[in-house]
Each structure stands twice: as C-alpha cells, then as structure tokens.
Specification:
mainly alpha; MetI-like fold; 75% helix; MetI-like_sf
Length: 303
Amino acid sequence: MTPVDRPADTATGRGLTGWSGRVLVPVVVTVFVLFFAVPIVWLLLATTKSARGLIVEHPFRPGGPDELATNWNELFDFQDGAVTGWVLNSAGYAVGALVITLIAGIPAGYAMALTTFRFRRALLVLTLVVMLVPNTALVLPIFLELNVIGLIGNPLSVILPMSFFPFGVYLTYIYFATSIPRDLLAAARIDGCTELQTFTRVALPLARPVVALVAFFSFVQSWNNFFLPFVMLPSSDGYPVQVGLTALLASTPAFNPSSAGSQSVQLPTLALATVISVLPVLIVFLFSQRFLVAGMTTGGTKE
C-alpha cells in the first residue's frame, strides 16, 4: 500500500464510523422495529382482548387472562373442535413429507456430489431449473396427475408433492461437494465398505448439520403450504391449519358480515389462531437453532 492510499483508506474508515454511521444505524434499526416488531407485539396483545376492547382500547394495552381464556375456548369450540384436527393434519403432512424428503433428498445430494454416473451434470442442472419454477405453477399438473391415479382428497395428495424438495437436494450437494474429505471416503472403500456403507457410516454422520438444515426448511415449507392442500383436499376435515384459517376468516363478521351467527369468530380469536399456526415453526426453530447455524456455516471453505 502506498502512502498516497493510506489517507484515503483512513478517510473512508472515518466516514463509516463517523456521523453518517451514527445516523444510519439507528434509522435502519428503527425501520426494522416498526416494520417487524410492532405488528408482532400488536398481534400477541390482541389475543388477550375482547372484541370490543380490541377496537376501543389503546392498541398496545394488554388485556387480561379471562379474555385470553374466552378466546381460547371460542377457537377450539369452532365447528366442534375443527382447529385441533387442522393442527394435527398439518403436523402429519409436514412430518410425512419431511421423512420422505430426508430419505430421498440426502442420498440424492450425496450421489450427485461424490459419485460418477451417466447424466449426472444434466440431473444437477435440472434440479437447479426446478428450483426456479414457482410452486404454484406446478399445482395444476400435479392435480391432473394425482386425479388420474385417484389420490385427490387423500393425505398422500399433499404429502407426496411436498416431499419433492429440490432445494434440499441442492443444499446437500453443496455440502458433500465442499465439506467432506474425499480421502476419508476413499479410505472407507479401501477398507471394504460398499458405497451404501460408505454413505451411512462415514458421510451421513458428518452431514448432521446439513441434514438438520434440510429438515428445517422442508418442515417450514410443508407447514406453511396453502395452495396445494387447498386444491387437493375438498373436505375441511383434511385441511391443514393454514387452509383452516380461511374458514375462520370467512366466519369473522369483520371480514364477512354475512357470517354473523352462532359459528361466528371474533377478531381476537382469529389473532389467537394466527399465533397458534406459527407457534410450531417457532418451537422447531428454537430447538434446532444450534444445528441450523452449523449447517449454514458449513461449506464456507473448500477442501
């Protein structure tokens, strides 16, 4: 570095940490707080209020446990406990798709990264192309295919399409291609391990971070999926909770005035249903956070 360059670098450093930095950082933080934190706080407080209190009281004034209990009972009494069934359906669809995704996606990523076979590169390109296709664009052809074999209305009509997770295959491919020492796998083969034994005994135990990462993304995608179950499941008994929220929304007089009656749902109850629909993803994230961080940082250096 020349002496002429140093003052410029020093000036740049002063610019980043000077008055512009002191102004820019608080502005950015304030915008993020207003945009993300404030709606979440309001939503949580709304679950503790009555329908009247949500409208006439201060937006950030908390309610009481009695109102929360009333909203809870109203929610789980809706259509004779339909919400409980919707949550269980979501769990079944998400876990079923997750298991199939791990069984199929992890070995697929390993094979494309560390084995040689015909059309390997074409298969990898196809995986990348499919990742770019919006999921909603695939719903109609999937519906027609499943209708031919008579699976419409069956839980498999939701589980099987959600098990197709090319992003998980690509994540696994990147991990195995950059983070697994090939000499270690070669040593296992020299010791007499078959390719399946090399994968299950050597590569897979080292890939726990990326397995956790793929599992988390697969679970979140399946849990939050709305359009596919909405098309595939004609009966509300099979709805996941995300589709069930539309039934609650349609039964809320504030959004649908014609729904006023014995099965109507008030706004605080709808807010509580929204919180419950997000809670499983939050719990899974908290318990798997350590593995997620490890999975995101692996592959940063190459062998």
